[in-house]
Specification:
mainly alpha, 9 helices, globular
Length: 167
Amino acid sequence: MKKILLSLALISGLFAVDISNIDKACKNQDQSNCAFELDEYCKKDLKACYQYSKDLCAKDNFSGCLMTAIANVKLVKEQLIDIKEAYIDAQKAISKLCELPNIIVKNESSHNKFCVVAGDGLVLKDGKNYGLETNPQKALSYYKRACDAQSSVGCERYNSLKTFLNK
């Protein structure tokens, strides 16, 4: 029995993913290399990559949050994650992408991309049924960030929600 367990341990070690490159790129806050390394990791082990990305996101790593959101969608499609857990994790990752400093990629603002979605997630009527945070004031601040990043949708939602909350 010990020989079988030892053989299994050795075999599983052969298929383990070396995350030292990911650690190096992501701890240096080198976002382009971090994103690349995470993408490669997710191609090899989606569930492990998802957990690693969530941990990075909790440490305010932009690429970690982005990959958490991307991997989340893939795990839901493949039915490898509880849907309630997926919604909660997605809300946290997208909210964090809005809260982190604005990053411009290919002339596109991260706040323009993520703050409207983050705000929308905070005002879902049935959000609490899925364990999501509902917070119209926080949504208002996210819409404001999107508006400040030149998002016409963000400005519309900001003005609409502000009017609604002031009634």
